[in-house]
Amino acid sequence: MSSYHIPVLADRCIELLNINPKGTYVDLTFGGGGHSSLILEKLSKEGRLFAFDQDRDAENNIPDDDRFNFVASNFKYLRGQLRLRGVEQVDGILADLGVSSHHFDTAERGFSFRFDSQLDMRMNQRARFSARELVNEYSTEKLGELLRQYGELDTTYKIANCIERARNMKPIETVGDLIAAVEPCTPKKDANKFLTKLFQALRIEVNGEMEALKMALEQSAKVLKPGGRLVIMSYHSLEDRLVKNFMRSGNFSGQAEKDFYGRTHTPFEPITRKAEVADAKEIAENPRSRSAKLRAVAKKEQ
What we know:
It is a single chain. The protein is 40% helix and 15% strand. It has helices at residues 10-17, 34-42, 78-84, 101-105, 131-137, 140-151, 156-169, 175-181, 191-207, 209-223, 237-249, 280-285; strands spanning 24-27, 48-52, 68-71, 90-96, 224-234, 257-258, 264-265, 268-270, 293-299. Strand 6 and strand 7 form a beta hairpin. Helix 1 (10-17) crosses helix 2 (34-42), helix 6 (140-151) packs across helix 7 (156-169) and helix 7 (156-169) packs across helix 8. It starts with 9 loop residues before the first helix and ends with a strand. The model has no long low-confidence stretch (mean pLDDT 92).
């Protein structure tokens, strides 16, 4: 499992879940199974764990454990998939929103600019739409907007025009094709940072990550029992802003709703007062933990 993905802030995640040994828990991002294995260690034989992952590769990490239930699905279907299994409410939900090391290190998945492979970036390998379709089919306007929104890049329409010029000559099929297409727009001193943001933007769009996160967060407020914990680890500002606002107010604006008398109504009580981050030791051992931000809340008692 450690070769697939090293879980970040693993012990702290489990501590924040405040696990009831007989409880029912959800790991929204199973991946290599690192966090799931730690949850199972805390559960008694009466406890249950439901772990979501839409990636077929993750199925190789399923443990032989009667308490464990693998859900081969995007976590945006959280509530419906639990209901199919006779579960209405759970004691805790954990999500590690980072892309696993396995995805970045498996060349043929096309997530990394370190390898020249087919442009792919699909978390769900059964899906039709990949990064290849995106860069060849989106208009320059739509490309520029998603690069601005999800990559937080500058001069995004210049980048989109570079892609358009390249695809007009021949389809952009591989990672190498894309890097060559944007080469005129790539800053010489910060090429890796630029490409990281570019690939991040494409990956988020290909997999509908922001919409899936919104859907899962909204359902979490319904699925959690009173007192149940929601523990989320995010890795870039867009995700963290959604998580922070939702945990604070129960919506994505961050502004709590008020009743007729001006009293605010929010579904959660904060457990972490601000985002927690990895310490220097963990960052040295696992550099990908550098950007992790961990937040946790408990659903208010009714």
